[in-house]
Please model this.
Amino acid sequence: MRTAPDRLQLAALPATGIPLIEVTPGFPTALGLQRSAPRPTSGLLLSPDLAHDLGADAGTRLLTADGTTAVVAGVYDYHNDGRQQALRYTALETVPSDGVFDQCWITVWPTNDAATKLISTSLIPSSGGTPATGQLNTSLGANFDGPALFDGRLTRWAPIAAAIVGLLLGYTSTRLRRLELASD
Model:
């Protein structure tokens, strides 16, 4: 994704420009948009808050300040659950994947150091600054250690406790019914 040079000026909000971000055709999949249906190839993708404020949905035509129309291709799901707020109130425009982009997003679960190293191959060497990698939602875990979580679960001693309780119940019921068992 990259920030577009101009903001989106709508006739409905002439004094306020809406942030416009240009994305590659595969970016909507990273946002989870229409995984089972075909991805939109043209038109704007609106954030839920922006779509709500404009009363827009897929197929809606928005009149821009210069008199042209922009078609809404869809609304992407972007929750307020600790994610970066860059896409909270923006419009995304799908553009061809050629050219230089500011950010490269990948979806990886469980986390994988090899994927983080692989994404650095998409960088163009430059003289200024160092590239940064980060997690979109910092409120969720940065890594996943399944065996440690399994070993530390609250119910890890449940099978042993159930066996002990079962043995105690069996012993007690046998002792209480010993005359009956002896008669048999």
The chain has a mean pLDDT of 80. The chain has six helices and eight strands.
